[in-house]
Amino acid sequence: MRSSGRCVVGILVNISTCITILANSPAGWTLDKSADRQGIDARSLQNSPYNLTGKDVFVGQVELSRPLRFAVDKLFNKLLLRDRAIVQPYAVFFRDGKAVPNRNIDDHSEQVAAVIISQDKTYRGIAPNAKLISAAYSQRRQDGQPEACLAAQYIARQHNSTVRAINFSFGELLSEDPRPNPQLDGNALLTLCVDWLATTYNTLPIIAGNQGKGGIPIPTDLFNGFTVGFTHEVEGIYRQLDRGNLIDEPFIDRSNTGKYEQGEFFTDLNKDGKWTAGVESPLNGRRSLALLAPGNNLKLPNLQGKFKNASGSSFAAPHVVGTIALLHEYANRQIEIGQWSAEARRHELLKAVLINSADKIQDRGDGKNLGMSKTILDTFGKTWLDSEAYGSRVVPLSRSLGAGQLNARRALLQYQAGQQSPQNGVATIKAIGWDTNFVDVDNFQDYIFSEPLLADSFIAATLTWDRQVKLNDKNGNSLYDIGESFSDEGFNKIELYLMRSQDNDISQSIWSSTSQVDNLQHIFVKIPTTGKYKLRVVFKSPQTNTTSQRYGLAWWAKKS
To answer: Quick check: pTM over 0.85?
Structure first.
């Protein structure tokens, strides 16, 4: 496998480097812009009063190659002498062992790492003080999913399994998957592996989205983490899906206008004009793309310490990983003073928080759009309200926009609101909050808003839980070894309902998210009339595996 990144410059070019040098590049094309208000607004968290930099938070990176590290690579020592040692990982490895000095290094992994931990004064990373652990896995042409899984497992196990998220800015071609008739059904070895790692080691896998037909989609069809697409600037603001992303199928033109309109959807057509499974989208209409982040024309350092312009979802994904480091630093503070429990570190919860706080539609200043800072557009200039997800109870996320674009500041506000848990199946909750809990089969948990919600204002609510994956452990060491495999044990069917507080029949719900093919539910809908409402988490029988399901839930509403 030689798919070292999901990145483009203008058009899809040699993805082993994905970098182009742009002489006389405009000063505005910088990582600093993507991290600031024009992008994900992480700079406001790095400054007072939050002062969050990812300090003491471990995050991971797995790629074919790795970035340079002090005391390991001679080239790094040269950069140090020239004061160009911008990327300083906490540790580097080769698969499940020590890194080989001056081997398995490349510009791509150096630049992905820079998005997270760059300490350059001008182009500062999202979480410059996070402890990044990076592993390279490829040495030969035939190296692929087994070796990548081994490296990812080694990263997840570091420091007593406290690595909070792992960045995957690479992928496997479907044509190189050894399964007969391989499809994006979640059952490739690497996809099963990253889902197993999430559950086993409580880490959140973040996957860079692929670009173009026949690209590098494995493991974008994962369940227990999510896939990230990338945006470019419109009038200086990162807010439009770049055409280099994974969605390039034609749309079903129901109105015969030749233009995309609300209610129409994208798919892949064969030569006869009939529907067939999308080359780079998961089967059965399932969504894995959850978030967008800036990824176009970022100025990032190469192995020589020189800043070059780079584009692609390879560089969008680490914006998310860096944000996760900032949130975990905040959680560590809350746990240390006894305000929060270790439950706040659950990967399902962080997934729900990030998705629920994403930007969709810019707020007009009255709070009815939940204080969102940007209107995010697809490649046709349409918004989330024009997507197939809005108005559908069974489609939780937009195929091309996911839940919207990452907003680090809103993610912290969502997280700051704190845990609000049911007692005897019922919780009284504030307008913003979260919970991580369990629901039993044929049962439910109710979250009743303590104050009336405002008519014509939006409510956002996101529910996440894990697919179960079993390691077929031949030697009984509880670790994945080359030659072993995983088995998909499926996921339980959990649903999310918005109801009037006095109602008890889910058939009377105001709205719901009831996808049967996703392990994620997402509600984004307007409150019809000012009044008292509740959210209900329902676990319907029959269960697929466990009879008690752990979940993460985040909500954001506007009180009257």
So the answer is: yes
Query: What is the rounded distance in angstroms from the CA atom of residue 207 to the CA atom of residue 152?
Result: 12
Beta bridge partners of 227: 207, 289
Is residue 140 packed enough to be buried (19+ CB in 10 Å), middle (13-18) or exposed (0-12)?
Answer: exposed
Contact 174, 217 (CB under 8 A): yes
pLDDT confidence tier of residue 4, bands split at 50, 70 and 90 = low
In Å, how far are 70, 174, 286, 394 from 515, measured between CA atoms? 48, 26, 9, 4
The C-alpha atoms of residue 544 and residue 538 are separated, in whole angstroms, by 14
Question: Which residue in this structure is represented by tokens 């089967």?
Answer: 283
The 10s digit of each residue's pLDDT in 299-330 is 998 888 888 899 999 999 999 999 999 999 99
HEC letters along 94-105: ECCEECCCCCCE
Q: Is the pLDDT of residue 439 over 60?
A: yes
Structure token digits, residue 260: 């995309």
Cis (ω within 30 of 0) for the bond into 182?
A: no
Distance from C-alpha of 434 to C-alpha of 186, rounded to nearest angstrom? 28
Task: Identify the pLDDT of residue 243.
Answer: 82
Structure tokens at 228: 């990230």
Residue 76 has what pLDDT?
81
Amino acid identity, position 226: F
The amino acid occupying position 280 is E
Main-chain phi, psi angles of 242, to 5 degrees: -75, 145
Burial class (CB in 10 A: 0-12, 13-18, 19+), 293: buried
Residues 195-217 pLDDT 10s: 999 999 999 999 998 654 546 78
Q: What is the DSSP track for 212-262?
A: STT---BTTT-SSSEEEEEEEEETTEEEEE-TTSS----B--TT-SSS--T
209: which 2 tokens?
């989205």
Angle at 407 (CA atoms; ends 405, 411), nearest 5 degrees: 125
Question: What was the pLDDT predicted at 508?
Answer: 95
Give how far Cα 275 sits from Cα of 149, 253, 261, 373, Å. 33, 13, 19, 37
Helices (H), 378-515: 408-416
Q: 3-class secondary structure for 117-140?
A: HCECCCCECCCCCCEEEEEECCCC
Q: Which of 446, 433, 462, 458 is nearest to 522 (CA)?
A: 462
- For 150, 152, 284, 434, 471, the CA distances from 479, given in Å and listed in that order, are 9, 12, 31, 33, 8
**pLDDT at residue 285, rounded to an integer:** 85
Q: Of 224, 200, 150, whose CA–CA distance to 484 is shortest? A: 150
- Asked if 396 and 482 touch (Cβ cutoff 8 Å), the reply is no
Q: Which secondary structure element, helix H or strand E, spans residue 445, and what is its range?
A: strand 443-449
CA distance 97 to 101: 12
pLDDT above 70 (res 374): yes
Q: Report d(CA 543, CA 547) in Å as an integer.
A: 6
**What element of type H or E holds 320?**
helix 313-336
Measure the CA–CA gap between 303 and 306, rounded to whole angstroms: 7
